[in-house]
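Input chain follows. Return structure tokens only.
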Amino acid sequence: MLKFTIYLCVLLLFLNCDFNTGKAILFEGEDDIISNLDPATSEEVSESQIISCIYESLIQLGVDYHTLQPEVAEEWEISGDLRKFRFRLKSGIRFHDGSPLNADAVDHSFQRQITLNSSSPLFNMIEHIEVLDSLNLEIQLKYPYAQFLYTLASPFGLKIISKSALEKYGDEIATHPVGSGPFMVKEFLTNQRLHLTANPHYRSSSGQAKEVVIKCYNDYFSLEKDFREQKLDLIYAVPGFSIDRLKWQGRIEYQILPPLNVIFLGFNCRQPPFSDPRVRTAVLKAININELVNIVYRGKSLQAKSPVPPRLFDTGTIQQAAFNLQEAKELLGEAGYPDGFSAKFFYLDRLRPRRTLIEAIEFNLQQLNINLEMIPFYSWSELNEACRSDSAQLIWNSWQADVAGDPENFLYSLFYSSSQFNFFQYRNPDVDHWLELSRLEPHPEKRQILYRKIVQQIVEDTPAVFVFHVIPVFAYNRQKIKELPLNPYGMVLYNQIVLN
């Protein structure tokens, strides 16, 4: 889903604590839009954080990026052929509207989400869901898929919505979300204000935050100003230029997670001039990636060697071609474009550092006499839809891992020929075959061999220039926040925040 794209949104938190009454209200600022809280149709990355604290999954991923833990399911069994997964639900769970969370509700919610996203790599292996009784259900797959439990544990995957609420609101569930998670909606004014309150019946809330009020902003710099003036207490996904200004405050604590994303300059591999791999390689060699990372991003990102974040897969010696302007000019001449050409450049005009990055890339490509026609988009859904069209030529985009713990979903989503997220219109029969084999292979060691072949081939084909992996940085006021719990996907666990 498009909401899985990597985001550089800022999330700021103001704590107004009255410990005499035991009440802690968290006021949060968001410099992105919040309009759709339906897990089946939301496409904005800013909404995924909120969706994950309203809704739950069957299981969840542990902080070690490997261990699978119960969430709504208390236990599960896997058939020997890796095609049937049976789950037993915890008894007594109720949705925010008081209706019971049972196997029928899980089935109804999952069937709807699968139907609305039938080609998603998170769901397209599911063949059938059978309700066995009120607390037991079985999911049957079309083929053995060893990584299936990791997809279920993804915060971007199958979420459980109240069946009663779906029957009541239909598609308007987007603005009337009803889950079973630690927080529920008290008030929602789309793209303006969202008021969450703690679910008093939630099973395990060790934190002290009782309410979260989220306000949408258009201006990041006013948010940062409030943070420096101690009106706000938490910033999420802090950009490099902001870190430099904030580090002298003296009361700021930083928390860093390994990146699970990639930022790239993609090509339309089916349309000239970028259907020629020599042109794609010329563009790659003309871009000084090291300069972009160290100057534009102030070193707050990792230079990409391949499409896959290091936390997901160690590429070893595999690495895309290095900057070499002379070789870039020679390749472009060999391809029949010694005088360069003009190309459309699609990008999202909402994220703060991107204008500087785009200007740097534009300057690099001007050295090849490649002139860019800059075409901005103002939402992820619009940009990604445009990237799938034949009119796309160059696209500045990004991808956030849907599934941590195994790189198969990351690679399949972006590079499998028929994937809806293959923004490059990239086709390689060998890569497709190896991806299909990796989905069937139960042994991690053998999958690693396949992944290495896949990554090597993608790097050789150059469907994109893989620029960098953004390092998620959290800055918070340690005078207010004692512990800032995060899940492996970089989402704040509000129900576990410990305050000073």
